[in-house]
Each structure stands twice: as structure tokens, then as C-alpha cells.
Amino acid sequence: MMDKATLKLLSDLSLTMFRKNFFGIYHGAISAKVDHNSFIVNTADAIFDEMCEKYFCQLSMHKKDYRWNIASIESSIFASIYNHIHEAKYIAFGVPIYTTAYTFDHEVIEFSDYFGKTTFGEVPVIDPGKFSTWYDRNSLEITKYLKETNSNVMVIKGIGTYVYERDINELVKKVAILENSCRLLSLRSSFQ
């Protein structure tokens, strides 16, 4: 049985992140590590502005069973991150509009605002290569990048943003700062 407090926390944050355009109606994923062997993740048919228990499932990190068939497409990536990065307690994937749009014309996000600069400095934009093979190799590439760079944020050109944290409030804070900072960069360019 899934922990009610964790489900409520993920549900509430899903709505907040949906309202801030980090998640789309059916696009995104949020997860919490339950213990060394399992995690809770949204289902593939989750509607992020009305999350409830039926839109979550608990998965084993080491053994795929029938629940994996209803889980988010991001579940394999999340399991890999949880297995290889022990600091990860919460993970989110989304396609924030301004951040993702910024990736089309830039190789690095160089922040100009106070919060972006002091939180991130700069964030590289990772080129995913061929989109047609992305879901065959993304689990390995994302985990490898996050582990080797000691970064808990990965922005991928034209795909979206992966963020993990030990504290859920820090995760939401980083997501908000990243998107707001990219929005400011976008607005600044319209004044030039």
C-alpha cells in the first residue's frame, strides 16, 4: 500500500508544477523513493492538474512486474537514477515552456538574474542526438550525465528537464528558478 502522505505531497506539487507549466496535461513525471527497493511514480495516463491515488503506482527498482505497464514512460530512467545516485529521493521530469524553447538556439543557459546566477551559474544544454533512438538509450545517458557531472539538473535540447533532489522543496525551488530565469532571458531578448 502506498503512503498517503507521500501521495498527497506528490499530488499537491503536481498541481503546482502543472500551473507553472512544468507539466502538461499528460506530459511529465514525478516520483518519490519509498525505500531502497521501491519508488512511487505517476501513471502514464496521469492528468497533472487533478492527481489522486489512481494516478500513482509503486514500482520495484529491481524487478519489473505488471505495474510497469501502467507507469510513466520515465519510470526506467527514474529507477536508474535511484539505483545509481543515492542522494536522489525525489525526481521530476517536465517540459517547461521557456526552458525548453531556450534550448533550441543555445548550448548553455547563462543566467542573468540573481536567483538563476546564484543557484545555477550556468547550465549546459545537452544535445540528445537522434530523437528516434532517444528512448532506447536515455536511461543510461541521463544517469551517466547526472552522476559524472555531480549536477542534479539536466536540460535536454527539445526534450525537457530532469531534476532530482533529496528534499522535495529544493526540487520545486530549482524547477521554479530555472523556468523563471529562462522566461526572463526570453523577455529580455524581446526588448533588444
TrEMBL record:
Question: Per its UniProt entry, which superkingdom is the organism in?
Answer: Bacteria
Q: Where is the Class II aldolase/adducin N-terminal domain?
A: 8-186
- Alphabetical list of InterPro entries matching this protein: Aldolase_II/adducin_N, Aldolase_II/adducin_N_sf
Stated name of the protein: Class II aldolase/adducin N-terminal domain-containing protein
Protein's organism: Candidatus Marinarcus aquaticus
